[in-house]
Amino acid sequence: MRIAPGPARELDLPRRRRELAARLAWAIPTEAALALIGDHGPILETGAGTGYWAALLRARGVDVVATDAAPPDDDAGHAVLRAYRGDTLLYVVGDADGPAGTARLHEELARHWTAAEDLALPSWPNIPDRLTVWRRR
Length: 137
What we know:
Blueprint: H1 5-11, H2 13-23, H3 31-38, E1 43-45, H4 52-59, E2 64-66, H5 76-83, E3 88-93, H6 103-112, E4 113-120, E5 130-136
Parallel strand pairs: 1-2
Antiparallel strand pairs: 3-5, 4-5
Helix pairs in contact: 5-6
């Protein structure tokens, strides 16, 4: 969904999104997304924030460990991806250079990974949140 700049400014959607993200999560989980993630368990969730997604996954019986840097490092996602030695990565992304990752992280994905699955998530206007499954090349 797209909202014109005037109404979006009036509604102050970025502030509203930050408020809800601080209480719940940046992205909105769905049953399909939770099932897809659960199919790949056990899960190490980095950048877990409040742990909302992890709690929902645990309630479904998924073995998940949630972690987050405090305070968060702006390029933590890139560092985690570089250190990761597995072959499958599940990644929730919205802004290409926002809370879900930096340009360096996206460059690393483009160089060494191939998108295998892609699931649209409900999202805030003008932010196309997605759950993607990546395979190491």
